[in-house]
Amino acid sequence: HVQLVESGGGSVQAGGSLTLSCVATGYTATRFCMGWFRQVPGKQREAVAAVHPHEGVSIAPSVKGRFTASKDDAKNTLTLRMEMLKPEDSGEYFCAAAFSPCTVAAAGDAAGYWGQGTQVTVS
After folding, report:
1. pLDDT tens digits, residue range 32-90?
2. Dihedral in degrees, nearest 10, Cα atoms 88, 94, 95, 100
3. What secondary structure letter does DSSP report for 111?
4. What does DSSP say about strands 113-114 and 34-39: parallel, antiparallel, or unpaired?
5. Whole-Å CA distances, 55 to 6, 47, 51
């Protein structure tokens, strides 16, 4: 039984930083593509970061240079470090696993597994 549990969301002023974490249980993180998706009310869910098991990290152009994604296979944990946050970064952030393609071009509903979501508000 695969579970993804996020933590680390919250409210921050523009220019600030937040770190999101996702702990995966029920499978070995090295096996699957993992990433972060963002949902804004009235818009489609979009991928902001994808970590391929063998081919590295993909970051959405809108957050490139500000967001960093990394995976700790030993701890089955995925992290999203967000810096220089902007109000348009606000939204519900979801940890996801098992989606294809394993890039930020993946569709918003592509993942086989989802976390419960964590809210990020930038004002």
Report:
1. 899 999 999 889 999 999 999 888 999 999 999 999 999 998 899 999 999 999 999 99
2. -90
3. -
4. unpaired
5. 24, 17, 8
